[in-house]
Amino acid sequence: MPFVCPRCKKPIASRHNLTTHLKGSVARGGHSLELSEARRVANNTPRMDDLVQYARAEPTLSRATVKRPSDPYLAFLYDLFTKIVKNRSLPGYEFERRVDTLILEFLPDILESKPMGWGGVEVVMPEFPVRGDEQAQGDKQHDAADALLHRVSPSPAWVIFELKTDMRTALSKDSQDQLERRQRVVQQASSFRTLRETAMRVGTDPKYENLRERLRASVHLVDEPVELLYLTPTTIAPERDRCWNLTFCDLKDLGLKRNGAVWRLFRDIVVGTICQEPRSS
Q1: What is the phi/psi pair of residue 159, to 5°?
Q2: What region does 9 belong to: left with phi over 0, alpha with psi -120 to 50, or beta?
């Protein structure tokens, strides 16, 4: 079958049929999406043969002009970035975890540039707990976002950040379920106060005290609103109030002033590779 439904993994013969399936009622095996949302999901779902080629392909540098710099520091980073990209095709290699650490260093500058144009962006902490569930033994497990950001302008806000580096993962049912959970958190939170109170109660490990210490410094900002930002290979989040979806292809020609040479290497080697996705037509 050319397509597989990203929500339930059902084989679908055509993109038109996939749209029909997505907007069909749950009682009839569909997903009850609005027509516009069903079309968006269907249009972003790649053909199965493209995904197979994508999974088997050995990643290559995105630009023929990417050469190993003569500067020893930049040469080290060139070697590091190219190894991360090369190992992406290996089973069990957690490519996204490597990119996560690196992208967070650039993220404030990325978001303060176009197309977002935000100001005063700060990465407050990675692995921010957005929901805690009681376990039988009384401890709490949590559903953690990739990072918590704070933004000063165009209006002050706390931003839940999620990263996806693989198109198959981004379009999977697990990712769609996560997206719906995050959107509910944002829509239900009138301010950051509720999320902060939940996070302050999560976990008994001593490391959680470090988390609580960082959150204590935010006490004077708890009444600011909460927003959601995804960075993905392809658009997966519908446009709605307080929810944003930036794609890696939005960054492929972006220049940054701070750490510009390092960013150009990362952009051309890592970001460019993530943009080498299968066609969706």
Answers
A1: -130, 120
A2: left
Is the separation of the CB atoms in 44 and 235 below 8 Å? yes
Q: Which residues contact 68 (CB under 8 A, 6 or more apart)?
A: 75, 78, 79
Contact (Cβ atoms closer than 8 angstroms) between residue 144 and residue 128: yes
| First-to-last C-alpha distance (Å) of the chain | 15
The letter for the amino acid at 210 is N
| Predicted model pTM | 0.77
pLDDT at 105: 96
Shortest CA distance to 245 belongs to which of 198, 196, 183, 200? 183
CA distances from 96 to 93, 256, 266, 280 (A): 9, 22, 14, 22
The predicted-structure confidence for 26-38, as pLDDT tens digits, reads as follows 888 898 888 888 8
**Domain map of the chain by residue range?**
77-274
Residue numbers in the chain where pLDDT is lower than 70: 1, 46, 48-65, 132-142, 238-239, 276-281
DSSP string, 120-181: S-EEEEEEEEEEEEE-TTS-EEEEEEEEEEEE-BSS-EEEEEEE---HHHHTSHHHHHHHHH
Sign of CA dihedral 85, 109, 178, 17: negative
